[in-house]
Amino acid sequence: MEDTQVWIDKAINFVTDYGPKIIGAILIYVIGSWIIKKLTNMLEKVMMKKDYDEALQKFLSNLVGWALKVFLIIVVISKLGVETTSFAAVIAAAGLAIGLALQGSLANFAGGVLLIIFKPFKIGDLIEAQGVTGVVKEIEIFTTKLTTPDNKLAIVPNGAMGNGNIINYTAEGKIRVDTMVGIGYDEDIKKAKTVLMEVLTSNPKVLQDPAPSVNVANLGDSSVDLAVRPFCKPEDYWDVYFATVEGSKIALDNAGIEIPYPHAVEIQKEG
């Protein structure tokens, strides 16, 4: 009975000493989390009204949210009676160790900051970077997500993205579609050029400014190669490409212009 009474007394003392602190810490955490959510939502609305870039909105919102959560945790721990100075020292030491272990992640974070500041591309742009071509779906703190032409999700680290070459096909609003069509050496080049130009000008997705062009690009072994080059909007690239290839074949056939194919010559040695 005496042992039981001792444990009961300890429990009562613990509740008396730490109960208010624990309850206070829980209340601070709940209320603080609610306030952080409201502040981040308010920040997002302000940035939307100011017409900030969508990628910048998400990046700043996440950054501010995490910073406030770290501050909230420190306040909660302080409420529980833990010395914040010693806790800050522990965080600093842990931060140094984590920083050394996660150098790649920090490089990705820095790359994300550079992408947000210099804006080489934005969400919705068609880009090529690190050997990947796709439409920018999302720019996060550590990675950038691209949707490839075959509808695959590509995740590229921001560190490599920020330090590598980036080709933005959307930035200028126009992109050239390069195709090559060969005709026979006996065919009329001017007629072939006129036929191919009609294929381009009849396509509503081909832009008239810059004007499409058809030029002799190469004198091949069995054909005169014509460079067929229409311009279009980046989102219409593949439609224009396939329409140009198919339309060129049909138009040249209808005009009676030969599209040669490689010929193999077989030499037989008489025995």
Written as H for each helix and E for each strand, in order along the chain, the element string is: HHHHEEEEHEEEHEEEH
What's the total count of β strands?
A: 10
Strand order of the largest sheet: 4-3-2-1-5
Which descriptor suits the 3D outline? elongated
Gyration radius, in Å: 33 Å
Query: What's the N-to-C terminus distance?
Result: 119 Å
Approximate helicity band:
40-55%
Low-confidence stretches: none
Strand content: 15-25%
> Can you give the mean pLDDT?
81
Helix/strand structural class: alpha+beta
Largest sheet: 5 strands, antiparallel
Count of separate DSSP helical elements? 7
Description:
There is one protein chain. The protein is an alpha+beta fold. It is built from seven helices and ten strands. It has helices at 2-49, 54-79, 84-101, 103-118, 158-163, 189-201, 237-254, and strands at residues 126-129, 132-139, 143-147, 153-157, 166-168, 175-176, 179-183, 213-219, 224-229, 231-232. Strands 4-3-2-1-5 form a five-stranded antiparallel β-sheet. It has a three-stranded antiparallel β-sheet with strand order 7-9-8, with helices on one face. Strands 6-10 form a two-stranded antiparallel sheet. Helix 1 packs antiparallel against helix 2 (54-79) and helix 6 packs across helix 7 (237-254). It starts with a helix and ends in a 17-residue tail after the last helix. The mean pLDDT is 81.
